[in-house]
Amino acid sequence: MTSLMSYLTPQSQQAAKAYQLTQRAKKGKPAPEEWDRWLFELFPSYFPAPFASRHRDMWEWVDNIPTESRPPAFVGIWGRGGAKSTNAEAAAAYVGAKGIRKYVLYISRTQDQADDHVGNIAEMLESPLFASHYPKAADRKVGKFGNSKGWRRNRLRCANGFIVDAMGLDSARRGAKIEEARPDFIIIDDIDGQEDQPVAVDKMIRSLTQKILPAGAYNLAVLAIQNLIHPDSIFSRLYDGRADFLANRIVSGPFPAIEGLTTELRDGRYIITGGVATWEGQSMARCQQMLDDMGLSAFLKECQHDVEAPLGGIWDHVEFQHIDFAELPDLVRVSLWVDPAVTNTNQSDSQAISVSGIDEDGKMYRLYAWEQRSSPHQALRHAVLKAIEYKSGTVGVETDQGGDVWISAYEKVVEELVAEGLINEEDAPQFQQAKAGAGHGSKVHRNALVLADYERGNIVHVRGTHQIMERSYRRFPLTKPFDWVDASYWDWNDLRGAWYAW
Asked: Is position 2 within any domain?
C-alpha cells in the first residue's frame, strides 16, 4: 500500500515529519541521546544528508567535550559548501541544550558576520522541535520584573543560563565576560579573507592570542572552522604548523569538495569530468552548479583549497618525494641551520630553520621546516631545542647580518635554557656560522645547486612540515619570503660537503 507521504512534495513531507516529531515530544518522549539522531530529529531541515567522516569526527569531539577540563582544539578545514557554519552553529545549540558548556563566544571576521551566525543559532533555539524538548534553552532570560535580559542581534541569554555572544575581529575586546562568567566554548568561523596581507593576518592573530583566547574559562573548548583562503592565512598556518597558538589541536582536513577533480572546457563552460564527491550533501551535480556560478578559479580556491603560490619558478617541474618519520633509515649525520632576521617588525624578513639528515648512501632527508616572523632570540631558542630533538650536534647560523653578535646571542640563549632546566649544559649543540658572501654565490645560484640534487632524486621530504618546504620552493624566486629556502641551502651544503669528504 502506498504511503500518503509519497504524494506530498518534499517540503510538505518535511513539515509533516516535523509535526509528528513535535507531537512525540509533547507526549514526553525525550530527545535521542545519540548526537546524530539528535540532530536529524531536532533540526531535520538543517541536516537533510548523511554526515561525511569529517562531520562525524567533529561531532564526536563535541559530544565528548569534558565538563571540567580543556580538550584539544578542533580545527576543521573544509571546502565551501561543506556545511561548515551549519555544523558550528548547531554545535553551539547542542552544548547549550546538553549543559556541556554555559557561554559560547562566536568569532568571525566582522561583527556583522558574527551577528548573522548568532541569529542563525537563535532560529535553531526557537524552532518548535528544539523548544519542545528544551523549553528553558529556547526561552529568553528575564529579570525579576519580567523584562527581557537578552536576545539581541549579537547576544542570546537563555532562561537556563546559557549565553551566546557574537564578536567580530574588527571589534574584538579584551576580557569578554558577563556577570563574572568567561566563555567556555569559543567558535572561530570564517575569519580569513582572500586579500589579507601579512600585516593584516598578524593583526588578527594578535587579536585572537592577546584578547580573545586569554579571556576563556579554565575549561575552554575551541572549535575553529574555515576553508583555506591563501597560503599565508591563519588557517593555512594552523594547518602547516607555522601557528604557535592553539598548539594542542586536532586538524581535520583540508577536505576538498571533490577528490581527484578533473575538468574540461567545453564551449566556454568548465565541465567536471572526473573525481569523487567527499560528501553526499555536496554532490557532483551540486559542485557543477557551484562551478558554473563561481567560475573555475574561485571554485578551486573556495571548494578545493587550491591556494598555492603562482607558478613560474625554477621548482615547478619537481615532483617531491615523501616518507613518514617511521620509515626513516638510520642517519649518519643531522644538520640544523638558521637563516635569521636581525629585527622583528612588520617589514622584517622571517626567521627560518631547516633540519636535514643524511644516510650512509648519501640520500638526504628534510626533517623539519620553520619559517615565520619572530625575534632573533626566539628563533635561536627554537633552534637549540629542535637541534636536541633531532640530534643535531650543531646549530648553524648564516651571519651575513649581525656578524659575530650571533655568537654572544647564542651563548646567552643556551645559558637561559640551562637555567630554565629545559636542556642540560653538556647536551647543548655547538655553534657554527657561514657567510653567503664568502664564495657561495647568489640566492639563485645556491638554489640551483640544491635543485640539481632534487632532480637526481637524492632528497626526500619527511611528512610533517613538508608543506612549508614545498611552498617555499614553489614560490622561489617570484614571491617572498625566501628565508627557509636560504636555510635549506646551508644544511644541504653542510651535509653534502661532509658526505663527499667521507
From this structure: no
Does residue 10 lie in a domain region?
no
DSSP 212: I
Res. 308: pLDDT tops 80: no
Q: Are 34 and 142 members of one domain? A: yes
DSSP 8-state secondary structure symbol assigned to residue 397 = E
The C-alpha atoms of residue 106 and residue 226 are separated, in whole angstroms, by 13
Residue 338: strand pairing partners: 353, 397
Query: pLDDT tens digits for 104-136?
Result: 999 999 999 999 999 999 999 989 889 989 998
Query: In the structure grid, which three cell numbers stand for residue 246, read together?
Result: 592553539
Same domain, 73 and 173: yes
Q: Is the pLDDT of residue 399 over 90?
A: no
What digits encode the pLDDT tens for the residues 412-471?
A: 999 999 999 999 999 999 999 887 666 677 888 888 899 989 988 899 999 988 888 998
Q: What is the signed CA dihedral for 236, 240, 246, 250, rounded to 10 degrees?
A: 100
HSE at residue 124, side-chain half, CA atoms within 13 A, is: 31
Contacts 24+ apart (CB under 8 A), 241-247: 241/370, 241/464, 241/465, 241/467, 241/468, 242/370, 242/371, 242/372, 242/468, 243/205, 244/372, 245/205, 245/208, 245/209, 245/213, 246/73, 246/75, 246/213, 246/222
Q: Which three cell numbers stand for residue 226?
A: 574555515
325 shares a domain with 443: yes
| Alpha-helical segments (H) within 308-375 | none
- Cβ-contact 358, 453 below 8 angstroms: no
DSSP string across 231-244 = TTSHHHHHHHT---
pLDDT for 19: 52
For 265, what's the count of Cα atoms within 13 Å in the CB-facing half-sphere? 4
Q: What is the pLDDT of residue 146?
A: 41
Q: Is the pLDDT of residue 184 over 90?
A: yes
Q: What is the dihedral of CA 246, 190, 372, 419, to 10 degrees?
A: -20
Report the 10 Å Cβ neighbour count for 423: 18
pLDDT higher than 90, residue 342: no
Backbone phi and psi for residue 381, each to the nearest 5 degrees, phi listed first = -60, -50
DSSP conformation class of 178: B
177 compared with 350, residue with greater pLDDT: 350
Name the average pLDDT for the chain.
Answer: 85
List beta partners, residue 152.
Answer: 155
C-alpha cell at 301: 580556491
Does 237 lie in the same domain as 332? Answer: no
**What are the pLDDT digits (tens) for 360-376?**
999 999 999 998 878 88
Residue from 118, 112, 124 nearest 47 by CA: 124
